[in-house]
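Chapter review: from sequence to fold.
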Amino acid sequence: MAAIYSGIHLKLKSAKTSWEDKIKLAHFAWISHQCFLPNKEQVLLDWVSHALVSYYNKKLELEDEIVEKLWTYLDNILHSRKLQNLLKDGKTINLSFLTAQVINERISETCVQKSHGNVGTVLSCCRGILSTPPLAIIYTAKCELMVNLLSKLCWLACQLLTSEDAVTSQLFDVLQLTFAQYLLIQRQQINPNRVFGQVTSHLFQPCLLLRHLLMARVWTPADDGRVRQHLSREIRNQVEAVLQAGIFQPELLSSYREELLSERQPQEKKKRALKTILLPVNTVLSKLCDASFCEPTLQVIIVANSVPLLYKLFLDSYCKAENHMVCFHMFTRLFGCLRISHLQEDLWQETLSPVDWSTELLAVEQLLNLVLSNDIYNVAADRIRHKETQFQFYRKLAEMLVNHSQASIPAWFRCLKALISLNHLIVEPDLDDLVASAWIDAEVSEPRTKKPQETLISAMFQTYTKLRQFPKLFEEVLSVICRPAADELRLPVLSAGLTEKLRECLLELPPNQILDILFLILEKCQTLIIPDVKDDSDMALKLLSVSSVLHTFLFNMKSLDNVTPLPVVLRTQSLLNKMQREVIQPLLDLLKDHWAEENKPGLWLEKVSDSALLLVYTWVELDTLLSINCSKYVSRLAEAAGGVTECAAESWDFSALLPGVDRQCWKRVVRLSSSFCSASKYCLELLMLQKIKKILMQTSFQTEADLHTLQHAAAFILHSGRSSMSMEESEPWNGNISAINALTYPAAHWYLVVSNLTILIPHLSLKDVEYVADVLLKILSSTKALGVSADQDSFITAEKVSKALLHSTFLPEIKVLHCAFISCVIQQCASVLCSATQGVADLPIQQLSADNIPWHEEVLSSCKMVDMVEAQSKNNQSKDEAFHCWTTMEKIAQHILLLTRAGSPITLEEDQIESFLHLLEIISALKLDSLFPSDHARCFLLLLSLVANTRANVSCSKLLSLKFLITCFHLLTCLQTGRSVNSIFKVFHASDALEALMTALFAASKCFADVLTTPNWAEFLQVIQTFLEGFLQMIVEKSQSLKLNLEKFTFFLASCKPYADADRGKPWNPAVSQLLLVPLTTLCHVLTLYLQQQSEKKQKFTEMLSVLLEPTVLQTGTAIQLCLRNLTKDQPLPLAFIPSVTTLLKADLSYMSMGGFMKMEGEQENPKDPGKYREYSHTELYQKFYIQILRELTSAGGHLQFLHSALQFLTVFCSVTDLYPGEETALTVFHAVKKLLAGPGTTVQVIQDLEMQLTELMTQLVESCTTEEFCVMIRLVLQGLEVSNIWKQNPKIQTKEVCRDQLLISTIVVPILETVAVLLRQGEENLSNPHHVTLAFSILLTVPLDHLKMEEYGSIFLGIHEVLFSILQCHPKVMLKAAPSFLNSFNRLVVSVMHEGRQKGDRGNTDDFGVVLKCAHLIERMYSHIAAKTEEFTVFSVFIVAQYVIELQKVTLYPSVKKHLTEGIYHILDLCIERDIKFLNASLQMGVREVFKELYNDYTHYHKTKHGEEKYTA
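The token string follows.
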């Protein structure tokens, strides 16, 4: 048959055969085994290659479709498995070099035509050739073809990346493969000049362009993910490898050296020019700066991005100590490629855009960082050997950067910082301009720019601190500040970050240097600024800047103390005197002369006022601090205060404490400064605060004049910012006093007030306290979104301050404010309610906020003393007012109840509910457990009224209404834990409160039918149950009219509207029915709980609880049956009813245990059926639920909520065997559970979640079943275990396989170990065969202890430990013979703990390390138990110690782990005698012996001498 196809070769060559038929024949010939052709594969490959070569050489004319089919045929051959198998078998198959040339030309064509549609097949062929080594020889053997291919592929990739087409992976896969093949060839080349020429001529430009485009492309979702995430990074790495291996070869170092160094030696340049053929630097840079290979704008960016790369590759290849000058000159040549290099010589006429500056400066920054990291610049070597060549270059660079300031570009700051790091002298000649352009005059606001700016300035601080030239730096700073300002609104000199850095530097500086700076600041103020500040806004701004610097220095320098040298103290005192006399006094005089301009002040007057008051505050604060800390310092304030008369002390102004300022002058200054919402007003508040502190500190007891002064000072601070706190617009404050303006003042003022409340509150009037509370609530209630950027996270806002106060622990301690704040919240609630009632008055919440009621008389009486003289006549009225308060609340409680019974709630809209929710959120942040009795009762009445007397509009969101009720009940529950909880029973009966709440809930829940399946409804029922449970427990525990309240509540539930609807035959609303079960079941639960806790001594109380429980049980059962009445036959049980029935059954059982429905004292037995009293109240209901639950159990699958409830019910039900219906027994339940666990929906996770409920149910079944039933259960369990396969293979191997699966470790291995431990604990009585016990050792040896997650490791370790401990304690006979096996298993635990507890450089997760510590502690305990078994282990003590020290010598343990292990091994050393110690010293190897000697020495010193033989005594 093969002979039929033997003429195919002739047909392929025949001109008569069409190309369509030729291709079909060739394809058939390749795949068919029936075609006979000598060397068929090579012939077919040659045929298709020849056809393609002939076509592209114009020797053959073919249609485009035929050409594509030929490429496809070639591609199919190259990727066929047949070809791979033939090559694998050693058959020789070749491709011609012309094929590679054709592929290269076709790719080149595609680049020229810029159409990538038909190149896919060619690329696939290329990949097939390169990935097949025998065929890739056509490229690897002829390097020019490979270089050409790589070049064309790079250009093609660049075209694709610059187009709008989606990027696919095919081209980049081929490109990566080509790079890899070329790198192999490149390493094999022996002619470095040839490689250099190939790379620079053909690959340099496309590679740099490709690298840039891969980095700069904005990737889209349409682009291939592999290219974006993996291939782009891999190709960039290959580009760098190609450039480094091609351009910067080790053999070319001499050429680079000659070219770079000869430029500095012109006399030798001509001589060497003849010898030096290759000029690598010129070649590379000419290619780099050639603008012809891409668009000019793109070429500039590529140069900037490539210069740092080339320098990095150059340094990686050549950077050694002897080549540092070569590296430097290469740096200068590469820097010359950047456009900004021409700015050094003013050769550049064009203006660079900010984008161009940013790109170029990034390149300079990277170059300088490379110089730094590679230590290219050595200051001493450059000065001595090279005549400061490098220094001069860097100087010019620094000068250019300073002269062309680019403060909006982060890289500009980083370049300057790098130059300072190289040598501070580089920038020092331009230090003044640097300070001006990079700091004082720089308008930097963006976080990304501000951070490098602060880094630069911090570097300057640190540098001049180390050089001890800090005064020199700040002399320049002050000079710059005193220059004419370019902008009036100059930014603060020292930000918070710079202030922190300045503080660190000031702590390192000598005191005299700091004082030099401070004297210099005062001199600048006195000589340059103050004389010309009048009517000059620019000078006033300079004054404020200098004052701010002075303030920052004085507040952050190290304080004087008793060990400070006297000259420093005297000089400091002189400084403060000069500051007060020559700066502060002239400024105050200036303000005094212009105080009449308060109505129309100029900017200069405002800034002078800010500066003067800032300096006054600084001077006062510092004088006070120094007088406290340093006994050598003489306080000017103390001297002035000593001469103050009583009349002057009564004055609330500050003139009495400020030397040289009379009272009239100070009043005018205060009046003028108070008119500005700026730093001056804030400083006045600080001064008043300082005055309060001084009076409190220096006066042993306060006179009436002192109290008067304190009150006025506190009131001044508070009212100073009153007008500003009502402003709608405000901004965050950065904490800098000099930065305070009209927008930041509210935040600064409120911060000052809140942070000093503990000082201010005792001296404020009641109205002022109420004002503080009102402002606090308004700020917290504000809905405006204050935009705070990322860099302003540390800024201060009124909102942040208020929230911090609200959540603080000291707000409840400020009792007056706490009470006033609660009153404000209640008033706000009344205001919201008024908007809903449209002016209806006399509502309960409005009554709770009445102003004429003394709600806090016992608290606020002390505050009323501040209100002048009015308190004198009211001291005797407090008791009557308190009585009036409680009487009012009783009336309000009754009013709430009447409104609830009347059924006329107030309708709330969504916005009003949102407002209430916000206010309730504020209440929840308060410490509700620390309220005063009156506040506790008011809050309870407020919440009660909100629930009982309001109702959401029908159109409102049901979920929002639920959220409102949930929040109210959550807060009601929180109030139950308060210390004043008894106060609520002063105003109403507990049953009345419960009636009001439940009546409102029954009415409101009718609208919730649509949300019964949402989590919100379940949360709603849960929060009501939690409240009722706590409230009822409180009634029982506190015996608050127990019988009366609970009987009334039970009667209310029996007669409430749902029952009335049921009696009339109306179907129950499902929401109402579920809600009704909550109070009934909760009452059953509470009564049952307390009935079980009562002792026999409290018989009377027990009988009372029993009497209350009986009707509750009956009523609950009736309610459940009524609720179930509307269910259809096949409808599943409502989930909410199962816990109710479970609770009812528990109550029924508890009641039966107390005697059942027995007659109580004074009652008659039932004459019809006197024996009926012993029956359960609702047996039929329980059985119905039991049957239904068993039916639904098998199909429940993963319905965890149902399974939890169902299993809990079955546990209680199965505890009473009399309840089983018909012939059913515990086996019925066991069968149902077994079927559930075997069901498809019951996963491992479900079983783990149900573990506790399943355990309780199985325990109950086993306890209550008969012996026969128990045997059946065991038989069913064993039938379910498939163990036959275990014996067919090696069980140890199977155990290892199980342990390799991480999922099976916790699900199979750990339970097996736990089971083995439980069995072993049964002791020798039940496990009499020692062989069965020793099998456990085989199990332990198969369980791995390495390569586990730490959580799993802890579980496995504990399991093995428990098995060993059970054997040690419960099987002494086995231990007599099996001690070696025991020690073998135990030693695995010791080794694993040492492995996990070794020091790894980073302790890692704290929880993980805690697991290791627990395991080490278990090892310590086991050692002690082993030591106690002296009979079994004394002979092995040497072996145990030897194993321990051998392992210890291999690792370095964490001290905490080593401590446990060492304490344990000490117990084993107690068993060793002197002969054992000598044996260990003789037999252990050298390194181990040293470890043992150290261990034994510690044992002798720390353990043996302290314990001796005492540990063996009782």
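Two observations follow directly from the output. The longest helix spans residues 566-593. DSSP finds 69 helices and two strands in the chain.
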